[in-house]
């Protein structure tokens, strides 16, 4: 099915760690076709990739997910042992944006479209939705918080409030997009159609996030809410209220994937899937 762009359409971007390279391919296709949305909302890797889309920097997300990973392996236990997390977010959000592929803050801040980033508040156990259009440092802090995968990455802070990955509390923020007035949406997922998390609670040792019981509870029931939102998305897709772009081939990329060939294939698939719709 093909879709014509609508000024009232929203763009919703799921996370998924390195599976987000699929989204990078989708967004580069949009940039090549000059397809821009008045409203974009992203979670975790979806937010990170979405930033380069909003700043109109075609290829920047591919560079960070593939080329930079090849040159500087920012994923692995060695980073965890140094207190950086399995994925070195210090490098990705403090070094990369300035040294390797400067982020175009001017274009981002002056973009006419809204850009919303989702984080999870450790104190309340609720999703937080941010739109930062002035302060570069705060924008990166929000994006980093959105990407701070529980357990794998240290807790991040936004305005001195402890935060973790936005996917904990709102994995696919279609409900927020609709609440903000965008009832026709393009949703980019990083799992195959029909995927559901197994029906079991997420167990954590007692010492992990012991200061944040609200976020522990959110993690425990995350599988249930994730499956519910995927059921909702399937209904929207069936009734024609949403276009869903998702991988067609069986996913072979893990959240912390380091295989460059697999990542490249998934990027190429994202580009092709987007081209088949627009």
Please provide a written account of the structure.
There is one protein chain. By secondary structure, the protein is of the alpha/beta class. It is built from eleven helices and eight strands. Strands 1, 2, 3, 4, 5, 6, 7 and 8 form an eight-stranded mixed β-sheet that branches. Strand 3 and strand 4 form a beta hairpin. Helix 1 runs parallel beside helix 2 and helix 3 runs antiparallel to helix 11. It is globular and about 50 Å long. The termini are close together. The model has no long low-confidence stretch (mean pLDDT 92).
What's the rounded overall pLDDT mean?
92
Q: Describe the global form.
A: globular
Radius of gyration: 17 Å
**Class based on secondary structure composition and strand pairing:** alpha/beta
Helix count, DSSP H or I runs of 4 or more residues: 11
Kindly summarize this structure in a few lines.
With 278 residues, the chain is α/β, with parallel strands linked by helices. The protein has 11 helices and 8 strands.
For this entry, give a set of tags.
single chain, alpha/beta, globular, 11 helices
């Amino acid at each position: 099915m093909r879709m014509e762009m609508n000024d009232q359409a929203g763009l919703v971007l799921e996370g998924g760690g390195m599976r987000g390279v699929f989204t990078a391919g989708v967004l580069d296709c949009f940039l090549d076709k000059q397809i821009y949305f008045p409203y974009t909302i992203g979670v975790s890797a979806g937010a990170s990739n979405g930033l380069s889309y909003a700043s109109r920097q075609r290829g920047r997300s591919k560079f960070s997910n593939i080329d930079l990973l090849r040159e500087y392996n920012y994923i692995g236990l060695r980073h965890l042992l140094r207190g950086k997390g399995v994925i070195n977010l210090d490098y990705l959000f403090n070094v990369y944006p300035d040294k390797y592929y400067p982020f175009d803050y001017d274009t981002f801040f002056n973009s006419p479209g809204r850009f919303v980033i989702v984080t999870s508040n450790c104190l309340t156990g609720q999703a937080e939705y941010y739109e930062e259009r002035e302060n570069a440092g705060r924008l990166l802090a929000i994006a980093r918080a959105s990407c701070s995968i529980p357990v794998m990455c240290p807790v991040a802070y936004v305005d001195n409030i402890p935060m973790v990955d936005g996917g904990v509390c709102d994995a696919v923020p279609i409900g927020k997009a609709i609440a903000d007035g965008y009832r026709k949406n393009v949703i980019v997922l990083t799992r195959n159609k029909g995927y559901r998390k197994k029906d079991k609670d997420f167990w954590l040792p007692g010492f992990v996030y012991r200061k944040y019981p609200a976020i522990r509870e959110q993690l425990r029931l995350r599988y249930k809410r994730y499956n519910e939102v995927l059921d909702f998305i399937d209904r929207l897709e069936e009734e024609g209220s949403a276009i869903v772009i998702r991988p067609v081939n069986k996913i072979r990329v893990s959240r912390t994937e380091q295989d460059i060939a697999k990542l490249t294939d998934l990027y190429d698939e994202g580009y092709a899937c987007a081209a088949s719709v627009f």
